[in-house]
Amino acid sequence: MDIKVCRYFTTLARTKSYARASRELFLTTQGLSASIKRLEATMGVPLISNGSGTLELTEYGRIFYQRACAMQNEYDLMLDEINTLQRRRSGNILLAVSTGLINSLPHDAIERFNEQSTTGAHVEITRDLVDHDCESNLYEKTCDFALLNDPIDHTMFSSLPILKDRMHLVVKSDCPLAPKAMICASDLNGLTIACVTPGEFKTSKKNEPIIREAAPDAKFIYSTEMIAVLEAAMQGRAAALMPRPHATLFEKEGLVGIPVEELTWGFGVAWRTDRTLSPQDEEFLAFLKQYQKFYC
Question: What are the annotated GO cellular component locations (predicted)?
C-alpha cells in the first residue's frame, strides 16, 4: 500500500471534509475521492460513511485510522532521519522557486552562496513553478526549501520573509493617477485591471476581494503570464497590477508604476515545520536574511 494513501485517509478523517482535505493535500476533490475508493476496494470493507450527511468513519475506518496514523508517524520519522543524514553528508539543498521570484534576488546570489559556503552546502534550483506546484513539492518532500509568494499560510510550513511590499498599478504616463505617489484600492473603481490569475499567483487570490469591495465597478482581465499583463498596459487595454520588480522595468516606455496602499505583496522562503534544520540549512537561511527588505 502506498504510504501517501494513508496520509490522504488520515487527513480526510481529521478534517471531515473532502474540500478541506484536498486543499491541504494539494489534490483535487475528485482525485482524493478516487484514492479513497481504491483504498476501500483494496481493504474490502467500507471505511467512510456519508449516510447521515456528514463524513464519519465506519468501525473499520476507525481501526484503519488508528493504525494508519501510527504507520505514518513512523514513516515520517524514518524518512526525516534518513534525509537529515543524507543532507549532512552531501550538503545538497534543493530549492523550488515560484515563477519569477529568483529574479528578485541578485542574479549571482545562489552561485556566490555555493562558492562561499563554509559548511559544504550546495543549493540547486529546480525549474520555475507556479505557487501551488512549489507548495505541493515542499509538502511531498521532493524539495527542501521553496521561494513562495505571500501568503505562505499552510500549517505544515515554516517560513522566513524576504520581501514585504505593495502591489503596483502600472498605467500610461498620461493617466490621471500617474502623478500620485500612492493610491488607494478605491482609486481602481471603473478601471479595467489586468492581473495574473489566482491559480498562478497566490497574491491575486488574496487581493482580488479587497479590490472588489473597494472598487465594485472595476473589471478584470486575467492572464497566466506577467508579461501578458504588462502588454495589456503597454497597449492601453488595461491598467496592470503587478509587483514592484516588474512594474519598474518599463518606466522608459511611457508607463508609471504606482503603489496601491491596501494591496500587499511579498515572498519568503518556506520549509516543512517537521524538518530538522542541518548546519547547511541554517547557513542558507542566514545568507538569505541579508536580502530582506520591507517597504511596508
Answer: cytosol
- The arithmetic mean of pLDDT across residues 110-132, rounded, is 90
pTM, whole model, 2 decimals? 0.73
CATH code 3.40.190.290 region(s) in the chain: 91-296
- Taking the C-alpha atoms of residue 269 and residue 125, their distance in angstroms, rounded to an integer, is 13
Instruction: Report the alpha-carbon distance of residue 266 to residue 183 in Å, rounded.
Output: 18
Question: Three-state SS for 50?
Answer: coil
d(CA 245, CA 101): 10
Q: List, in sequence order, the alpha helices (H) in the chain.
A: 3-15, 18-25, 29-43, 59-90, 109-116, 131-139, 202-214, 226-234, 244-247, 279-289
Tell me which architecture the domain covering 91-296 has in CATH: 3-Layer(aba) Sandwich (3.40)
pLDDT of 158 > 90? The answer is: yes
Dump pLDDT digits (tens) for 123-145: 999 877 888 889 988 988 888 99
Assigned C-alpha cell, 229: 499583463
Q: What percentage of the chain exceeds 70 in pLDDT? A: 97
Contact (CB, 8 A) for 289 and 159: no
15-24 CB contacts, 8 Å cutoff, 24+ apart:
16/54, 16/55, 16/56, 17/55, 18/55, 24/154, 24/155
Say which CATH architecture domain 3-86 belongs to. Orthogonal Bundle (1.10)
- Residue range(s) in the chain whose domain bears CATH number 1.10.10.10: 3-86
